[in-house]
Amino acid sequence: MDFSLSEEQQLLKDSVQRFVREEYELESRRKLVATDIGYSEDNWAKMAELGWLALPLPEEYGGIGGGAVDTMVLMEEFGRGLVVEPYMSSVIIGGGFLMAGGSEKHKTELLPKLGAGELKLAFGYAERQSRFDLNDVECKAEKSGDGYILNGHKGVVFHAATADKIIVSARTSGGSRDADGITLFLVDNNCNGLSRRDYPTVDGLRASELELDGVAVGADAVLGAVGGGAALMEEVVGQAIAAICAESVGCMDVLQETTNEYLKTRVQFGVPLSKFQVLQHRMVDMFMECEQARSMCYMVTLKIGDEDPVERAKAVSAAKVQIGNSGRYVGQQSVQLHGGMGMTDELHVGHYFKRLTMIDTMFGNKDHHLKRYADL
Amino acid sequence: MDLAFSNDDLAFRDEVHTFVKAHLPADIAESVRRGRPIAKADIQRWQLILYNRGWAAPGWPVEFGGTGWNATQRYIFDEVMAEFDTPETIPFGLLMVGPLIYTFGTDAQKERFLPKILNGKEWWCQGYSEPGSGSDLASLQTKAVLTGDHYLVNGTKTWNSSAHIADWTFCLVRTSSEGKQQEGISFLLIDMNTPGIEPKPIISIDGAHHLNMTYYTDVKVPVANRIGEENKGWTYAKFLLGHERNSITEVGLSKQRVRRLKSIAEEERTGGKTLLDEPDFAGKLADAEIALTTLEYLSLRFLAEEAAGRPIGAEASMLKIRGTEIRQQLTELTIEALGYYAAPFEMEQMSDRWNEPSIGPDYAAAQMPQYLFSRAATIYGGSNEIQRNIIAKMVLGL
Ligand SMILES: Cc1cc2nc3c(=O)[nH]c(=O)nc-3n(C[C@H](O)[C@H](O)[C@H](O)COP(=O)(O)OP(=O)(O)OC[C@H]3O[C@@H](n4cnc5c(N)ncnc54)[C@H](O)[C@@H]3O)c2cc1C
Ligand SMILES: Cc1cc2nc3c(=O)[nH]c(=O)nc-3n(C[C@H](O)[C@H](O)[C@H](O)COP(=O)(O)OP(=O)(O)OC[C@H]3O[C@@H](n4cnc5c(N)ncnc54)[C@H](O)[C@@H]3O)c2cc1C
Q1: Under a CB-based contact definition with an 8 Å cutoff, are residues B159 and B129 in contact?
Q2: Could you tell me if A127 and A113 lie in one domain?
Q3: Under CATH, domain B124-231 is a member of which superfamily?
Q4: How many Cα neighbours within 13 Å face the side chain of A22?
Q5: Best residue in B205, B268, B327 to probe A by mutation, most A CBs within 10 Å?
Q6: Does residue A112 surpass a pLDDT of 80?
């Protein structure tokens, strides 16, 4: 058993840390969030140059061939920086789908571009009625000649506006919540019949509502087997959850460290706040939440490649529950212990709190995963 | 012990019900229903409607323009107000400085200030906290030096809610550095239009401008605007904090929230049914509702004590603690109910001038800002840690 990082992983960590330190000072991030696209193309190019966009992609398609631990290392540091570039949508999820379900043609054509930063992807799955159920799909894909016609709606699609292609789940057969009959399609962002409404999200990212009104795609737009999208989604979303757990650990660590420091410097009643035992105990609980979250982050990272889908699913849901609990506590208490300062937009604390709040929601909140775990 | 309403009570209930139903402006109710911020002018409009009916200040004695209602009537009134989408009362005038002025003020002060608090023409803000003095309020440093018939005030106040739209502020200032900190504080009423006062916005995590840092440079305040005696300000401030703690209970507001949350959970779907039919969620909603009922009965007991002439002491801190915790429980459950639609954060959507269709369901937009801002409830008005310290010391003798 070994939980330490290899030399290369340590180098990766150092280099992401340096990037975050240089590019992700709160004021720089604030400026990025306020731009049209909500992030920096320069940063994206830099990430390509540093090999991060190709990190999890296979070597035969121009990737680095990194594993789950490498992704974890990177995502944790991105969490520390509250990085807003569409890494999760494009590389982890988009790349994940191409690798797991793409045809040889998809892989040879798209993966090298993805790794080089010349292609961005997004994933549209949620619908108004679906809540967190990936298989609750009403968006329809009807066979038409060799290809398909897509009709329906996709909600809160992260980073859709800047994606070149959007992966959309649609029903090719079966009833609205059946696992069978869901197919994944690669849809060009500028294709006829696709309309988007873009907006900012509370955690400083961008998302869109998508309307698909007679979107025509060829047979080569299908990712994986026709009707077999559910298993594919479960696999890739599992990887996304492992990655977001690492991001969340990075966020929590920053909050825990800053709040600890704040209590030592803020004086009330003639003493630093750190002298008050209730606050000491609160800090201890925050620290313990961070360590528990980290433990589950390691656990899911090491189990995400497990052959047994039930083992894998249990690991994913268990980690997501713990991350949700910890993130909620650490986020809320960091605001509380900073007093009025914690409520300001000026301080970074609130921004981390908001990201942690959304991380609990992403890919199913605590209740969703508790239930899923219990049902497995 | 008796919970039943008399026939008179029931008739009163009908009277209030009929009045609110007939007079609550539909546009205001709609904004409240959606959880949008309510504009000052709209709050004033509703206040004036209540004022014209003689119901502006349910808690005030008749001689100062209040209703003189007994505890049961006040309970009934609050209950009916919560049944409709009425806007919340802004506490600074009606619940805080008003009672202070009629309790400790001079006749001239009562005449000058109370009528405009009642009809909502003048808005107040609270100037207590300073950058270095939050929980440790008594350490405040803003100085007031007596020169002839006025004080010269210099210093910095912070976290002043609504200071940018207020006409007056009630302010704690240091008039002496001798002896105990608490014994050198005075209580001043200050016209926000006096030269030398400069509120600067503080944007909070919900993206809105509620708060201000207010700078005071050589601000002239007539001695006649001091409440009570010089250096006795701490006594008055404590009286007022007691009032603030009661008002922060917000049972009515939380009832409105429960109602809204239920209707949201009826709209939201999961696994082919409504979220309200989903046992885990329904259980959490029931839990919050029961907590609220518990708080309601806790506060009714206190109200009855007060009405019987036995003023409650530090126990009131319990109401503040539970009231704010329940508010947070409800706002959190509300964003949970929205699922992914808690994420869209378009500030313009909050405005009543927003004409485009909403992103996701129309009730969604305001909920995340409400959740975020509700995190402040356990910080302001004396943080919940401080309230627990107060109960430990004053009630439990620890
Ligand atoms: C089932 C059991 C088995 C045990 N077995 C052993 C054994 O094998 N060998 C042995 O030597 N002892 C043993 N103990 C004794 C045990 O270590 C003591 O009970 C323990 O150290 C607490 O001391 P106390 O009972 O005197 O409580 P106290 O020290 O009086 O504490 C009372 C309460 O006050 C709290 N408290 C005390 N100080 C502080 C502080 N500074 N800050 C915050 N809270 C505080 C405590 O947490 C506790 O809740 C055992 C006790 C139990 C109950
Ligand atoms: C939204 C909002 C609106 C406000 N409106 C107003 C207003 O209109 N007018 C006004 O004057 N003020 C207002 N305030 C200020 C508010 O009263 C203070 O924020 C509050 O008193 C806490 O002070 P602080 O922010 O300096 O935090 P601090 O006092 O620095 O406290 C930081 C943390 O330490 C804890 N703590 C401090 N001392 C102790 C202790 N002895 N034991 C245990 N824990 C402790 C606190 O509970 C808190 O969690 C507002 C604040 C907010 C957030």
Answers
A1: yes
A2: no
A3: Butyryl-CoA Dehydrogenase, subunit A, domain 2 (2.40.110.10)
A4: 8
A5: B205
A6: yes
